[in-house]
């Protein structure tokens, strides 16, 4: 992404992306370690109650500020003009949603198929209020590419969550241990963002600025509401058609399968919208969009493919034998994870270009297609069917619609975007198939650790061979950039498109 943009912005994006990668990597490792520990202390049905509560919490968090912080994050406005208004919107809407979660918890839990999750929903409501209180500081850190400062804050929140959840789980708190530990971590993060933010603002109100902020933010918030309803609809369907144990197994499979896509998109998102906003203003966003799509696909697709290939032995190795049935959902969810990497990129491109209205309608189409697919898939194949439904809808419906939206709103050619991802996609299929064959032949049941190592190694080698021309291009570009130091402001070598 940084190869053709202005030198000053390029340096800031590279620095932000580097620190963002360190932050996300360390955060995900700690979070994953926490999941492994807790999975051995808490039964699958408690994870099912958490999954129900997370449906409510996630939707609330992503509409809590009505998309207003995007106006700060784009970096094309003076924050002094709009930050107080954004802060007022965030606090007000977060307070309303927190109250709604507390009061409506019994009805929400029953509607989502697990009445026992009501208390968990009430506890997680506190995280919504905390998120509203630190929304503007978080947006300011994001806007100014201050990813280095974020590391201590984000890691502190995760460490506090881990320190809290282990003894609580040992005391038999079940799903409430998971909920209260998240509240503790969110509180630490909220305080941390107020400390590291470059500028602090009090709530205020400017009627004229509020109109512009909401015109940009409301379509984004509506899109977020639908997209997170879409991404959590599977928990509702699995919970209602199956049972809490199946829901807990599915939650674990989803978290594992989505790990590559969540890490990659989180790293990209640390710099994407501010960078895309500036590139759009400079008129260079369409060309950069194709380059970013190719790079993301090349780097991220094999990660999801490897998880698919060694899913069974990997789950047993990490979480224990009682979680083995979760592997049934991994095939579809891993394929869906690859599509999700692209859809998140496409959404960020549209936000950077200021074209947020179309995002809402993409999510409406996604939800409309996914609902019947999930119901049919889970009815026929259990938790595996949920994965199949996600994969089919994402690749056959959502990605094509997004390509059209990006072409119209951003100006990037849909055909070029698709061709940029084709080679990595073919390599990922070969990677997953070879990893699965080797893992099965090695002894996925009797020697799961060996099966993971052997299958993963072979799958990675197959991917690198299958995508060798792409890899050599990136290697040559990297060597060219590292072998000579260009003078300040000079044009650097572009990665071929």
Structure, described:
By secondary structure, the chain is mainly alpha-helical. Helices cover 81% and strands 0% of the residues. It has 20 helices and no strands. Helix 2 runs parallel beside helix 8 and helix 2 (44-61) runs antiparallel to helix 9 (207-241). It is globular. Mean pLDDT is 81; it is low at 1-5 and 483-497. It comes from Agromyces allii. This is Lipopolysaccharide biosynthesis protein. Belongs to the polysaccharide synthase family. Keywords: Cell membrane, Membrane, Transmembrane, Transmembrane helix.
Q: Layout of helices and strands, plus pairs?
A:
Blueprint: H1 7-39, H2 44-61, H3 69-73, H4 79-111, H5 118-133, H6 135-143, H7 147-170, H8 175-196, H9 207-241, H10 244-257, H11 259-269, H12 272-282, H13 285-309, H14 311-319, H15 330-352, H16 357-381, H17 383-409, H18 414-442, H19 448-466, H20 468-483
Helix pairs in contact: 1-7, 1-11, 2-4, 2-5, 2-8, 2-9, 2-10, 4-5, 4-9, 5-8, 7-8, 9-16, 10-15, 11-13, 11-15, 12-15, 13-15, 13-18, 13-19, 14-19, 15-17, 16-17, 17-18, 18-19
In short:
By secondary structure, the protein is mostly helical. It is built from 20 helices and no strands.
Descriptors for this entry?
mainly alpha, 2 domains, 0% strand, membrane
């Amino acid at each position: 992404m940084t190869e053709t943009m202005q030198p000053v912005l390029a340096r800031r994006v590279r620095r932000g992306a580097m620190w963002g990668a360190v932050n996300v990597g360390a955060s995900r490792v700690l979070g994953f370690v926490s999941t492994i520990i807790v999975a051995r202390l808490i039964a699958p049905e408690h994870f099912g109650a958490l999954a129900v509560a997370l449906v409510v919490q996630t939707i609330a968090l992503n509409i809590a500020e009505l998309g207003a912080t995007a106006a700060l994050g784009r970096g094309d406005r003076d924050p002094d003009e709009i930050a107080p208004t954004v802060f007022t919107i965030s606090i007000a809407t977060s307070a309303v949603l927190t109250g709604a979660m507390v009061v409506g918890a019994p009805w929400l839990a029953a509607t989502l198929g697990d009445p026992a999750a009501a208390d968990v929903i009430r506890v997680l409501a506190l995280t919504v209020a905390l998120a509203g209180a630190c929304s503007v500081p978080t947006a300011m850190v994001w806007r100014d590419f201050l990813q280095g400062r974020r590391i201590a804050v984000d890691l502190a929140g995760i460490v506090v969550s881990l320190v809290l959840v282990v003894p609580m789980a040992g005391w038999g708190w079940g799903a409430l241990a998971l909920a209260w530990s998240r509240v503790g971590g969110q509180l630490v993060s909220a305080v941390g963002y107020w400390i590291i933010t470059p500028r602090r603002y009090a709530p205020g109100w400017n009627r004229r600025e509020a109109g512009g902020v909401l015109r940009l933010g409301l379509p984004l918030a509506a899109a977020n509401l639908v997209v997170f309803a879409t991404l959590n609809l599977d928990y509702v369907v699995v919970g209602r058609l199956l049972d809490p144990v199946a829901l807990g197994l599915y939650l674990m499979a989803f978290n594992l399968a989505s790990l590559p896509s969540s890490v990659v998109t989180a790293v990209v998102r640390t710099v994407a919208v501010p960078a895309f906003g500036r590139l759009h203003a400079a008129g260079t966003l369409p060309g950069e969009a194709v380059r970013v799509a190719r790079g993301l696909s090349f780097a991220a697709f094999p990660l999801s493919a490897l998880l698919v290939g060694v899913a069974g032995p990997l789950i047993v190795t990490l979480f224990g034998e009682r979680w083995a049935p979760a592997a049934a959902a991994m095939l579809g969810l891993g394929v869906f994870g690859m599509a999700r990497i692209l859809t998140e990129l496409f959404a960020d491109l549209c936000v950077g270009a200021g074209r947020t209205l179309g995002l809402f309608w993409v999510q409406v189409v996604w939800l409309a297609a996914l609902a019947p697919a999930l119901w049919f898939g889970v009815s026929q194949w259990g938790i595996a069917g949920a994965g199949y439904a996600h994969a089919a809808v994402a690749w056959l419906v959502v990605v094509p619609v997004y390509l059209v939206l990006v072409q119209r709103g951003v100006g990037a050619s849909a055909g070029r975007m698709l061709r940029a991802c084709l080679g990595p996609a073919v390599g990922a299929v070969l990677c997953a198939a070879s990893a699965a064959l080797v893992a099965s032949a090695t002894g996925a049941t009797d020697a799961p650790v060996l099966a993971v190592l052997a299958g993963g190694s072979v799958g990675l080698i197959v991917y690198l061979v299958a995508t060798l021309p792409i890899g050599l291009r990136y290697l040559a570009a990297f060597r060219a950039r590292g072998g000579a130091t260009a003078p300040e402001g000079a044009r650097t070598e572009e990665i071929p498109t």
